[in-house]
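Researcher: Please translate sequence to structure tokens.
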Amino acid sequence: MAVTIVLTNQKGGVGKTTTTAALAAGLAAREKKVLAVDLDPQGNLGFSLGLDIDTDSTSTIYEVLKNRIPLSHALCSAGVCDVVPSNILLSQAEIELQTANRVTLLKESLDEVAQDYDFVVIDTPPSLNILTMNAYAASDYLVIPMAAEILSLVGLIQLQETVAGVRSSVNPQLEVLGILLTKYNRRTRLAKDVLEMAETVAAQTQTALFDTKIRAGVAAAEAPAHGENIFEYAPRSNPAKDYECFVSEVLERIGRQEKHL
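Model: Translation complete:
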């Protein structure tokens, strides 16, 4: 049965899609069978993993959630892993998904293929909407990428409250795996201030920061634009080295959690 991880932050520009692609590719490099699911209407995850999603024949997560096709019919091979892509049609989900089980549509769809993968990694839009709630309902663990900027701290407590609501309703097993600082430059006073405040917020919300910090680097911003994950685009860059450590830390933390079950 696949372990499902959702990457989430209601603030945009924190490196969420880059982190999702890096996690999927990093797990696959360790001989894990990985499915990446794009729940962001911008559709950047598939592109970041090398998919050409601008063809009329490509099925997306939108058709799956609308119950037009099973999830297995939307699978695309991106080489390193399988991907269920997205496009702008998904932005209509908030209005169109009005069924009684609207929060568990993704979970029910993933159940069909859960036995075929070791990990499912989900990218989400920068908001707390029906798509994000579907991701939370379907996942075992939640990772919060957060840029080393003051404004990135806003919303973390609200996010924790949302997670608590999901636990009490549709997914009591959901665990926050940690907060990942991105765009980090340890030489700046700002980064040190954000780190201190993030540690305080994490303690208040019973969450832990990842020991790994993703250093700022132009390669992390350029990789998605070239349709490559960070390991393919710039394997010797600081962000690639940091993401490698992050993948190791994710596996280590999940291993500890599983032992406690």
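Researcher: Any highlights?
Model: The first strand starts at residue 3 and ends at 7.
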